[in-house]
Amino acid sequence: MTTLQQVEDLIRKQLNPINVKLDDLSKKYDELQQAVKFISDKYDGTMNEIKSTNTKIQAHNRDLTTIKQDLKIIDKRAIESLDQVEELAQYIRRDCLEISGIKATDEPSSEAIVQAIGAAINTPLDYDDISIAHPIPSHNPRQPPKIIVKFKHRKTRNKFYINRRKLAGTKPKDIPGLDGSSTADNKIFISESLTPKKRRLFGEINKFKKHHKWKFIWTYNGRIYLKEKENTKQYAFDNDDDLQEFYKANETYDDYSYSWR
């Protein structure tokens, strides 16, 4: 007959493998818990780093936005400053005119040429009316140097410039005192003294005029004017923005546009 002790021993014998497996599972569970805790800690740390990085990125983005806004302001002020410099440069030339088509020599001098032309257009000049006159290089190497003259009085300068129309078709040989010039057969032109930037603008507008066969282009006090015909609208240009606005307002001519900056 089986005793109680034998039954207990049998049960213990049967439970031993189960207990071993339970101990093993318990150990693995502890290890798994540790691994989960490690991963959780790492995740929390990573999330904190991501949050910190995002905060820095947002701060940098705000800084970049501020920098871009500052750059726009600086760019606008730089353009305004350049425009002011351009206006000042043109203003300094307000008392000057340029004469092309005749070469200045020792005899006649630049001043004498200006006086001879003044007499021919009913604007007689004394030496006291002229501040200075001298040759300047021509942009066309085949043409003689221009003569730039600065007048002492704006009124005299303006009268001389307005009366330039009386020179239409006139050559040096037609003017007493200039008929012996080596450029006696050239036509004489009187123009305002423009800054390099304003000359380029004038050139672009003149291209448009020639391409579309408009009739009139001229300058007055440094401003450029354009008209298609005698009784049509007059357009005024001070800078390239005015030219671009002109193109937009005249969509008929969109096939002919320029970029001269």
From TrEMBL:
Pfam entry (one): Baculo_FP_2nd
InterPro entries: FP_C (IPR057251)
Source taxon at top rank: Eukaryota
FP protein C-terminal domain boundaries: 195-245
Name of this chain's protein: FP protein C-terminal domain-containing protein
